């Protein structure tokens, strides 16, 4: 079996992901593929001790903390099993795109298998592949780039293979694949330039002694690291002679690790599993012995310095099978004499060997004159190359890791530099100055104390600086005038004129516009920050003429009514805070086009509207406004603010007001947004222009139609259909929607990250969509949907006959509230709602029938309120793990349970049972 070759010299995978898996299986899970291909192939690979990734559900639902992308990046091989149904799986196609990316970037080796399908059908996308892609293009018409990437990955893969594989040939194919993979995965010896050959010959003499006995071999290091070279080279040479290979590095650096955690580390290499928990040292010793006493193993423990900890991992010879070898490197000769049979002393490498080793690992990358950074890089490089028990990473891997580490050093240096600058800056803040962490980061970036290429990097550096500051309590520092930097000041009357010209950050308390400090302020030509406090109502018209370098102006809490005409000269201004002022006009805003942050919280004049010229601030990134819910419209041209990152509310205007299409190019929006007054949207075309599906950084979306209702419900249905958000959405709320049907996209499994859905006041809806298909949904609240009379099997799955999956796999909390016409809830299959913990049903006055709750074994809390005709059978059908059961204003249940409840009807853990707020005693 032939594999792909990378197109160019690969770089290394990200160093933060260790290679837990060596082979990634890419396949569509159906019975034929599982039974005839996946099972025999995986069994054979596991017999060779080759780690494979096969659990698709966990990878795509992220149960184990890693996404499929990270697992693919950490793998060395990818086996792609093409079958007739392969292209119908979005998981498979997404994985294939990532596989091709890793092939090009990291040299991931790809092995294709064609099961019951012609290779030409795959590569040319014909027959079943053609049908599948047609369906994808119809459903993903708004995300067609994704389909294009899938097609491109298949074409790219086809160009790599000129040989006709001729399909699946059963056992012979398995043997060929396993043989090829095992050859590639066998460790290779370090290059001879490292200079371990002579030492290796001497150590192997000890290994050859008594080949059927268990032997403990010690390597005494004289310089603290040369023994690691010998041990790792030995491991490469002898790897195929043992059933199990175990390595524990940097033993002396694991002082903080418990013995139990070290035992878990050892067992994870034996059992090929990360899910191992040892609660007791003796228990761990027993498990290690049971696992290894019949197996031929080689164990290497580097830099051992504690006999007791070593004994808990490799106690005695009878822990291991015949022929096993336990190799220990240490700088403690006495320790080795206590635990090993033979000891070999590794002298210092010769000068030529040292230079050869150094040139192999420490290539000349670039010139760096900073000695401190060189030392840190050398130490990090040392850990990477020497202390890795497999013999050290490849040169390419070291290159990539060192690049990352250099980047981290640069960030650390910036954090230190900026933290010192911010520390000085904090001294100018008034003692009563209240500021949040987010606000401080924005202020510091506006002033230029923090700089970064992207918003994400700026936030990362900014919050790191604040973390540093919090350790020193910056509230104390800003109140300590003794350490005030000469570039910072809180007053001007005690500063000479020459010092004024060097001043950069200033806070002043002004008595009025004639305050003497204002005259001296004209000399502060380098001023970047100006914070003004006081009861003044006006400022001199020429006040800012000499302050052309000003970047941040804060007049929060003053009585300022107008900004002076000279304000328009502040062309470099990035940050403006006029919060809690009676300011009447901001007409001069249009001149400060570099403004990035504008704070208007508590401005009475702008309580119901934003400044008309706001649309001219094309660099605005942060707009803080306290009364978003009172806005009836936004300024014309608001969509010009394409760099805006946060927008709490977007009210759709009437007639000539702000249209929904203004959102079209505002693709930098992130976090949460509430789109209000959707009853004002005139047509579906306006909703389509909003292009919500392109805004991948919006995580929480609220769609609100308000209280008014239009007669034509079809318009609302078309509008909502075009308001599909990006598939990265995490929370969705729909309020006041007047359509009869929910949108087709709401139940799409493509929304793999959505965790919360709230449906409220959607009174015209007669049916609930198949929300059970959402893979990550945890919270579902359905409130006042009066048009729903029955909840049936379609709530769980699109087709009642499709039982291939458990509905609502992650749902933990379900609330049905004020469903005035709901009469029955049915259609729940065995295994549905496997994670449900809490069920609340309230004010459903016609509800009679519930599904079989005993089938929902995870359910722990049930609360029923004002459901007067609910069936009495409920009390005989409670889940086995129920802990809390509350019934209020449900007379049919009250008659049955008010006085006493028999043990036979109750789960064993139900100790909180309340009927009309009275606790019920259990017989």
UniProtKB/TrEMBL annotation:
Source organism's superkingdom? Eukaryota
Domain TIR, by residue range, is 19-185
Tell me which PROSITE patterns the record gives. Answer: TIR (PS50104)
Cross-referenced SMART domains: TIR
Which terms under GO biological process does the entry name? defense response; signal transduction
The membrane spanning regions, by residue number, are none
Q: What is the name listed in the Swiss-Prot or TrEMBL entry for this protein?
A: Antimicrobial response protein
> Which classification does the entry list for the species?
Eukaryota, Viridiplantae, Streptophyta, Embryophyta, Tracheophyta
């Amino acid at each position: 079996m032939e594999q792909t070759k990378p197109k160019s010299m690969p770089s290394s995978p990200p160093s933060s992901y260790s290679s837990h898996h060596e082979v990634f299986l890419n396949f569509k899970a159906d019975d034929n593929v599982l039974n005839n291909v996946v099972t025999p192939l995986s069994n054979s690979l596991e017999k060779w001790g080759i780690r494979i990734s096969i659990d698709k559900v966990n990878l795509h639902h992220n149960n184990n903390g890693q996404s499929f992308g990270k697992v693919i990046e950490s793998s060395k091989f990818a086996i792609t099993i093409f079958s007739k149904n392969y292209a119908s799986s979005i998981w498979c196609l997404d994985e294939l795109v990532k596989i091709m990316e890793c092939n090009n970037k990291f040299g991931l080796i790809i092995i294709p298998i064609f099961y019951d399908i012609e290779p030409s059908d795959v590569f040319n996308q014909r027959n079943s592949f053609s049908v599948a892609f047609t369906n994808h293009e119809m459903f993903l018409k708004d995300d067609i780039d994704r389909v294009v990437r899938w097609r491109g990955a298949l074409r790219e893969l086809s160009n790599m293979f000129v040989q006709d594989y001729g399909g699946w040939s059963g056992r012979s194919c398995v043997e060929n694949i396993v043989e090829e993979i095992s050859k590639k995965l066998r460790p290779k010896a370090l290059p001879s330039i490292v200079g371990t050959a002579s030492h290796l010959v001497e150590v192997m003499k000890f290994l050859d002694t008594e080949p059927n006995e268990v032997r403990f071999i010690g390597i005494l290091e004289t310089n603290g690291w040369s023994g690691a070279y010998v041990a790792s080279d030995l491991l490469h040479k002898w790897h195929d002679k043992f059933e199990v290979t175990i390595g524990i590095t940097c033993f002396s650096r694991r002082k903080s690790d418990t013995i139990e955690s070290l035992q878990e580390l050892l067992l994870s290499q034996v059992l090929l599993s990360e899910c191992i928990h040892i609660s007791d040292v003796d228990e761990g010793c027993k498990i290690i012995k049971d696992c290894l006493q019949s197996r031929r193993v080689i164990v290497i423990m580097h830099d051992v310095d504690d006999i007791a900890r070593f004994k808990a991992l490799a106690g005695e010879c009878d822990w291991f099978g015949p022929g096993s070898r336990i190799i220990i490197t240490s700088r403690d000769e006495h320790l080795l004499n206590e635990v090993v049979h033979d000891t070999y002393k590794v002298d210092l490498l010769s000068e030529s060997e040292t230079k050869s080793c150094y040139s192999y690992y420490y290539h000349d990358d670039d010139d760096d004159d900073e000695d401190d950074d060189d030392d840190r890089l050398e130490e990090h490089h040392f850990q990477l190359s020497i202390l890795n028990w497999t013999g050290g990473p490849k040169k390419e891997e070291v290159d990539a890791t060192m690049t990352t580490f250099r980047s981290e050093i640069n960030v650390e240096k910036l954090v230190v530099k900026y933290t010192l600058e911010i520390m000085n800056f904090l001294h100018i803040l008034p003692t009563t100055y209240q500021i949040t962490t987010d606000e401080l980061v924005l202020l510091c970036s506006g002033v230029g104390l923090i700089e970064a290429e992207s918003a994400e990097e700026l936030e990362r550096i900014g919050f790191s600086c604040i973390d540093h500051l919090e350790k020193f309590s910056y509230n104390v520092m800003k109140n300590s005038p003794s350490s005030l930097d000469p570039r910072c000041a809180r007053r001007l009357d005690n500063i000479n004129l020459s010092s004024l010209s060097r001043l950069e950050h200033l806070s002043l308390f002004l008595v009025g516009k004639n305050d003497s400090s204002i005259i001296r302020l004209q000399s502060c030509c380098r001023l970047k920050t100006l914070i003004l406090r006081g009861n003044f109502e006006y400022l001199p018209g020429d006040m800012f003429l000499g302050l052309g370098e000003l970047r941040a102006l804060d007049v929060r809490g003053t009585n300022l009514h107008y900004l002076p005409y000279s304000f328009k000269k502040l062309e470099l201004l990035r940050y403006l805070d006029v919060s809690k002022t009676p300011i009447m006009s901001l007409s001069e805003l249009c001149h400060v086009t570099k403004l990035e942050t504008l704070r208007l919280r508590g401005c009475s004049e702008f309580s119901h509207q934003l400044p008309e010229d706001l649309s001219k601030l094309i660099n605005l990134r942060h707009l803080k406004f306290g009364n978003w819910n009172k806005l009836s419209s936004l300024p014309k041209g608001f969509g010009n603010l394409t760099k805006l990152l946060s927008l709490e509310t977007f009210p759709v205007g009437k007639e000539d007001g702000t249209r929904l299409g203004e959102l079209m190019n505002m693709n930098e929006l992130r976090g949460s947004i509430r789109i209000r007054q959707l009853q004002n949207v005139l047509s579906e075309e306006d909703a389509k222009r909003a292009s919500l599906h392109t805004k991948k950084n919006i995580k929480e979306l609220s769609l609100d139609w308000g209280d008014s209702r239009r007669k034509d419900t079809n318009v609302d249905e078309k509008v909502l259909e075009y308001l599909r958000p990006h598939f990265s959405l995490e929370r969705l709320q729909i309020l006041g929607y007047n359509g009869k049907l929910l949108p087709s996209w709401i139940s799409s499994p493509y929304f793999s990250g959505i965790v919360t859905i709230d449906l409220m006041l959607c009174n015209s809806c007669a049916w609930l969509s198949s929300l059970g298909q959402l893979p990550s949904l945890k919270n579902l609240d359905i409130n006042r949907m009066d048009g729903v009379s029955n909840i049936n099997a379609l709530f769980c799955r699109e087709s009642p006959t499709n039982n291939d999956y458990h509905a609502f796999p992650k749902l933990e909390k379900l609330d049905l509230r004020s469903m005035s016409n709901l009469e029955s809830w049915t259609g729940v299959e065995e295994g549905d709602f496997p994670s449900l913990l809490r069920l609340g049903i309230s004010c459903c006055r016609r509800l009679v029938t519930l599904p079989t709750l005993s089938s929902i074994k995870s359910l722990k809390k049930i609360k029923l309120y004002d459901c007067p005709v609910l069936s009495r059978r409920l009390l005989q059908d409670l889940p086995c793990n129920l802990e809390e059961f509350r019934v209020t204003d449900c007379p049919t249940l009250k008659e049955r349970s008010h006085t006493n409840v028999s043990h036979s009807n109750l789960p064993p853990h139900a100790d909180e049972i309340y009927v009309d707020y009275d606790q019920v005693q259990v017989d």
